[in-house]
Amino acid sequence: MKCYVLLLACLTLVPLLGAEIPDVDQRKVFIRHTDMKYSMPRYDSLSAWKERAALLRNQVKFASGVLPMPAKTPLNPQVFGRIDYNGYSIEKVLLETWPGFFLGGNLYRPIGKTGPFPAIVSPHGHWRYGRFENSETGSVPARGISLAKQGYVVLTYDMIGYNDTSQLPHGFEGPREQLWSLGMLGLQTWNSIRAVDFLLSLSDVDPQLIGATGASGGGTQTFILTAIDDRVRFSAPVNMISGIMQGGSVCENAPNLRIDTYNVEIGALMAPRPMLMISATGDWTRNTPADEYPAIRGIYELYDAESQLEQVQIDAPHNYNRQSREEVYKFFAKKSFATTPDDLKDYGLSIRGLQSLVSLWNRKLPPHAVDQAGLIRSWIEEAERQTEELRPTDGATLAAAQEAFRERLGLALMAEMPAADELLIEETEPLANGKILLLSRDGRGDRVPALLLKPRLAKAAVAPTLIVHPEGLAWVLSSSESREGLVQGLLARGGVVMGLDAFQTGRSKTTAEVTGENDRGTRFFTTFNRTDDANRVQDILTAIAALRQQTGQEAVNLVGMGQAGVWSLFARALADSHVALTADLAQFDPTADAEYVNHFFVPGIRRAGDFRGVAALLAGGQATLHNVANRFPKDWYQQSFDAAGGSNRLKIEPSPMTEAELLTATVRGGAR
Questions:
Q1: Sheet of 448-453, strand order
Q2: In what order do the strands lie in the sheet with 275-282?
């Protein structure tokens, strides 16, 4: 998987990038956050962008909890309470977007026109009254009415915690839910996907002409939806796509969503479909004409589709006001080919009481409606089902499981084996039998202390070994000086040994203050930054590549000690079968969410398949796992290795192995 590194434009932080190992690991001092200034990477060809777009689209999907896509259960739509007005009608809507979870909305339809009609999904944003907001700065009913009178079917619908959609508060997830990729942004994205499903089910809707528009938080919902759902053919995200503010609400953020990217690049995933960017002089979109619009236009130009992108800036504070709405009407009229009146004006509000819009006015949710605990439980059950359906039983199902879990675990950990031309290695200190090194990756800002020890007489039959220990290089050096030490034993048998101080371990550990002001360095941290454990997995992959480069041998051993055994297990999953693994799993219980939260916190890791996904990826290689918990999924590992025809290459021990036993297992087993 090829990475494209964002060119971060915060001027004091430009030295982060470059083909040099930084003096300080930038991952510890440079914390990306929502209020930084970002710039668009340069893409010189359409093929380069398409490759990046495919990866980015999957990143957005996974962060939103819809990779893999959950099963789409019946919407059981309730459409009722129709009131006819002059040229349009309004109905109340309840959609069961998830079993027992209901989305409230309103359906605006043309009267006196012949369909099928283009249709618009229209989320509202963070206005006080949600989809009922009717103020000078923004009126959701006014845009529904105006678009209906112009010949569109329009669905306005709630954000979670607003109006009729109140089974969950607006902001409910914590670390446990994040393990399963469950959160506000994801649920609202799911509701938007199901809103499109609903419109497509209507007989008076043209399925080829689905549009989307919303402002502020509704603008975020709009461009996130269009990034991953190509059924939306034209859009107008209003006052949100910005290079200087990425979203201030929990419902606009999700773990991993903006790691190595930002909203402008995500918004560009709309290309080459028609999009209007509305901005305002009085908010964070003030730079759109000069910065964000040209950046996205550059992507449209790669498609020779620059005519499909337009921008208008309104001299106003943050809004979806009448002037903004009328600009959207003009753009939609051009791109939807709808029969529209000559005068595309905003008709304002002419409704007999806003209570006529409330779906649950004098009504209750169905008896099977779930509460917060019930929704979380059913989400996890669905995720478990999707993992279990990939359980390998033969060669074909193993191959399918490996393809799926490699993608999912890669997206959770946001880690990968560095390419040869990306790896940076610097010798800092010679030793009698080796050297101290620094490892990094071109343009990534990491700085990983490492140690390479060479035997007096190297033997080609003994594969080089990478040892990962929570105490890092200090433990490796100590073991090399001990007659009974594992490292001393490996060297005596003719094997090269490498150790490292993985992220925030050993000499890599620091308490340096992060870049940022007030709480910006920690707010929505995982939306923009990898966790410590994810960085440790990356460092192990970087060290594997460095060990291969230093020794010229592809086959290597990976030994994870203590808590580092779990890091090593997941690193091996993203490596290859030429890495033979020996890992102490420290009685980690893979079925307990609290274990991950406290000892291996990687958002999305359980949604990605956790230890079971690793089983499929280890098959085909060699693995010795010891000190495993009673609930360790041995069946997954045995079935995976059986399917690969290598059951003899797997060893699982409930007790911890001594260093002497580890030496025997490592040297006799060796990498293949």
A1: 423-431, 434-441, 448-453, 497-500, 465-468, 556-560, 579-584, 623-626, 650-653
A2: 78-84, 88-98, 101-110, 153-157, 117-123, 205-215, 232-238, 275-282, 309-317
Using one digit for the tens of pLDDT, what is the confidence trace for 410-469?
Answer: 999 999 999 999 999 999 999 999 999 999 999 999 999 999 999 999 898 899 999 999
Which CATH fold topology does 78-364 show? Rossmann fold (3.40.50)
- The residue type found at 446 is D
Residue 106 backbone dihedrals phi, psi, to 5 degrees: -135, 140
Cα dihedral across residues 288, 294, 299, 300: positive or negative: positive
Cα separation of 337 and 190, whole Å? 28
Contact present, 563 and 470 (Cβ < 8 Å): yes
Q: How many Cβ atoms from other residues are within 10 Å of residue 632's Cβ?
A: 21
State the pTM of this model. Answer: 0.95
Domain residue ranges of the chain, discontinuous segments joined by +: 78-364, 409-508+524-669
Task: Take residue 558 and report the two structure tokens written for it.
Answer: 């990976």
Q: Which residues pair with 101 in a beta bridge?
A: 98
- pLDDT tens-digit profile of 607-618? 999 999 999 999
pLDDT confidence bin for 523, thresholds 50/70/90: confident
Distance CA 561, CA 657 (A): 10
- State the greatest distance between any 2 C-alpha atoms of the chain, in Å, as a whole number: 92
Domain at 409-508+524-669: CATH code = 3.40.50.1820
